């Protein structure tokens, strides 16, 4: 089991590299075709702050030099691609000499943390509920309540987020409205900090969970219906195994595998949804960084954030594709 | 044979059987289309019956609640502005009369263009095969991984204001991949089927085989994929609007939500300001979901429950 055929591996690696390259190139080309010049914007900001800027032309020249805007396009492109490989996106224009990479590095753990948490929870809840919808021993209520809850699956998490914020943060005040940890706690590995992070992360995670679990539940239901009719399930019943044991060890165990492939296709949408949830909750992750950068017209940060998120997505899809043959020994890849 | 009156259960059974004589008449599809038509009708009637000048900033008193409610300043809602007004003096009814059909329009247009591209590319890949197929397959594999929102953010941040149509075109550049993959896979399997072989042997042209023999069989899949793409397109458009991008001068639902969040509508308990656009979007998404589930029942008889 589990040996990945070379042709399949090559195919996946080529797709991964192409994805990264195309994304990086698009991100580079688009602003260059635009009539707006980042150096102008920055100068405008300095002028707004200081009243008047002496030697504006000199500064503009200097900035263009720093951003490498005076080189021929090909040179700029090659420089950009080499920089991107080393995660060097230059300096933020809004909070000037901070490197974009350090801003991204600060935001990334929050985003990844929130994402892993919400994805694990929805995957777990969704699959269990989907299985219960099919299982003959599950209570009537489950079979009525879950399909009704499916209606939520069509709603993007930003809308559920707004509703939750209003009810639980603004009205009931059970949870804080915005932020990813309290203003009074010192970041570190202390209990009060961890508590504060959980308290702040609960609503954003819940917003994502309630609109995504239905997707898994629907998929699981379809797979369970197929598994239900299999001979080995009938045999297990005939042997008199406990129904709960059959459900977990015989049915769910076999039905869950294709769900993992569905996961690879869903990552992109999940990521985009989470970026927006972070924006409305002002959660200290990539979403907020992106939103602030848009407000400030901070191109290097917008580019850096977009690139890193696309890279994350592509890597996640790649990993799921590679892990799949190990998880499901029945799968034989084309060329294998 | 006796003419004994049918029991209730039997009558219900009969009614159910009749209902499924025509798979297109199923409750999910009807409800879904009803909800979407409701939004279109709201847009049409609203344009005729309501004063749309109220969408301009400062045309109404600020932060009035909907009729029957009271805001924090103890002002009551008035019938002049039945759904309340926002923080810069715009009537919410006028906002949704213009905004809701716009969102639907962006979704439909983007999905329609994406679909046409997908049909063209999918058929080309499946039929021509070889290098063309490899190229189309790899590109659609690559593009399906890239979340459209992020590339569009870069685009709109660099270009500033866009029109609704422009936004739809931009989104369309990211929703052709799944129809392409779907059609390619179907074409590859159909190519081997008897009726296509038959058509080929009887000398039908490639165009004839593609559009007269194969395409009709793909219609249920195409519909499903189309509706799914409308949803994705609207989600992406709303996402851009909530980030403060998208059309700046036309009222959209997403932009209304953006302004509400920025003005602290959640803290000030101005629930109608963000809640009404949110509700409109939710109705739209639920309608699309129901249409999609209904179409599933049309194309997959096993899902029909008796």
Structure description:
The complex is a heterodimer of chains A (336) and B (306). In chain A, 74% of the residues lie in helices and 0% in strands. Chain A has 336 residues and is mostly helical. Chain A has a domain at 104-296: MetI-like (MetI-like fold, Orthogonal Bundle), CATH 1.10.3720.10. Chain A starts with 5 loop residues before the first helix and ends in a 9-residue tail after the last helix. The model of chain A has no long low-confidence stretch (mean pLDDT 80). With 306 residues, chain B is an all-alpha fold. Chain B has a single domain (43-303), classed as MetI-like (MetI-like fold, Orthogonal Bundle). Chain B has helices spanning 8-19, 27-49, 92-128, 130-145, 148-159, 164-172, 177-191, 194-201, 206-242, 253-262, 271-299. In chain B, helix 3 (92-128) runs antiparallel to helix 4 (130-145), helix 4 runs antiparallel to helix 7 (177-191) and helix 9 (206-242) runs parallel beside helix 10 (253-262). The longest helix of chain B has 37 residues, at 92-128. Chain B is flat. Chains A and B meet through helix 1, helix 7, helix 11, helix 12 and helix 13 of A and helix 4, helix 5, helix 9 and helix 11 of B.
């Amino acid at each position: 089991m589990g040996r990945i055929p070379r042709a399949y591996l090559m195919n996946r690696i080529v797709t991964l590299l192409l994805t990264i390259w195309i994304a990086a190139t698009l991100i580079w080309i688009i602003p260059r075709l635009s009539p707006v010049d980042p150096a102008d914007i920055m100068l405008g900001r300095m002028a707004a702050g200081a009243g008047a800027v002496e030697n504006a032309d000199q500064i503009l020249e200097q900035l263009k030099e720093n951003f490498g805007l005076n080189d021929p396009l090909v040179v700029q492109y090659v420089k950009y691609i080499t920089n991107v490989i080393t995660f060097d996106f230059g300096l933020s224009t809004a909070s000037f000499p901070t490197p974009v990479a350090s801003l991204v590095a600060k935001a990334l753990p929050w985003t990844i943390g929130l994402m892993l948490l919400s994805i694990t929870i929805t995957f777990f809840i969704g699959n269990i509920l989907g299985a219960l919808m099919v299982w003959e021993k599950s209570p009537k209520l489950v079979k009525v309540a879950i399909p009704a809850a499916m209606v939520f699956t069509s709603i993007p998490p930003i809308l559920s987020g707004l509703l939750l914020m209003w009810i639980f943060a603004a009205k009931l005040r059970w949870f804080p409205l915005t932020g990813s940890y309290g203003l009074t706690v010192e970041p570190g590995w202390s209990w009060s900090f961890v508590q504060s992070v959980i308290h702040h992360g609960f609503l954003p995670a819940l917003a994502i969970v309630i609109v995504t679990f239905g997707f898994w539940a629907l998929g699981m239901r379809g797979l369970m219906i197929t598994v239900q009719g299999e001979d080995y399930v009938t045999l297990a019943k005939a042997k008199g195994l406990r129904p709960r044991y059959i459900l977990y060890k015989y049915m769910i165990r076999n039905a869950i595998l294709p769900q993992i492939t569905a996961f690879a296709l869903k990552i992109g949408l999940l990521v985009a949804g989470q970026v927006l949830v972070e924006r409305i909750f002002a959660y200290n992750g990539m979403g907020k960084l992106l939103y602030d950068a848009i407000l400030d017209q901070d191109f290097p940060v917008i580019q850096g954030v977009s690139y890193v998120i696309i890279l994350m997505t592509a890597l996640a899809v790649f990993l799921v594709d590679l892990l799949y043959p190990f998880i499901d020994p029945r799968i034989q890849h084309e060329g294998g | 044979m006796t003419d004994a009156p049918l029991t209730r259960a039997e009558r219900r059974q009969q009614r159910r059987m009749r209902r499924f004589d025509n798979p297109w008449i199923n409750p999910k599809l009807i409800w879904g289309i009803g909800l979407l038509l409701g939004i279109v009708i709201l847009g049409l009637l609203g344009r005729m019956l309501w004063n749309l000048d109220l969408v301009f900033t400062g045309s109404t008193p600020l932060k009035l609640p909907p009729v029957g409610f009271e805001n924090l300043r103890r002002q009551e809602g008035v019938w002049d502005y039945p759904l309340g007004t926002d923080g810069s003096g715009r009537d919410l009814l006028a906002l949704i009369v213009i905004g809701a059909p716009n969102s639907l329009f962006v979704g439909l247009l983007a999905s329609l263009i994406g679909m046409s591209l997908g049909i063209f590319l999918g058929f080309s890949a499946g039929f021509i095969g070889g290098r063309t197929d490899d190229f189309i397959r790899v590109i659609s594999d690559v593009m399906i991984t890239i979340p459209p929102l992020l590339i569009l953010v870069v685009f709109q941040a660099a270009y500033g204001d866009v029109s609704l149509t422009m936004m739809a075109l931009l989104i369309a550049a990211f929703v052709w991949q799944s129809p392409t993959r779907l059609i390619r896979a179907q074409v590859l399997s159909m190519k081997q089927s008897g009726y296509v072989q038959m058509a080929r042997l009887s000398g039908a042209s490639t165009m004839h085989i593609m559009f007269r023999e194969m395409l009709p069989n793909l219609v249920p899949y195409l519909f499903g994929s189309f509706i799914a793409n409308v949803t994705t397109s609207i989600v992406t458009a709303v996402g851009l609007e909530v980030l403060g991008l998208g059309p700046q001068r036309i009222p959209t639902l997403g932009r209304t939500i953006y302004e509400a969040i920025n003005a602290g509508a959640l803290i000030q308990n101005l629930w109608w300001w963000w809640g009404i656009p949110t509700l409109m979007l939710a109705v739209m998404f639920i309608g699309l979901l129901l249409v999609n589930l209904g179409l599933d029942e049309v194309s997959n008889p096993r899902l029909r429950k008796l």
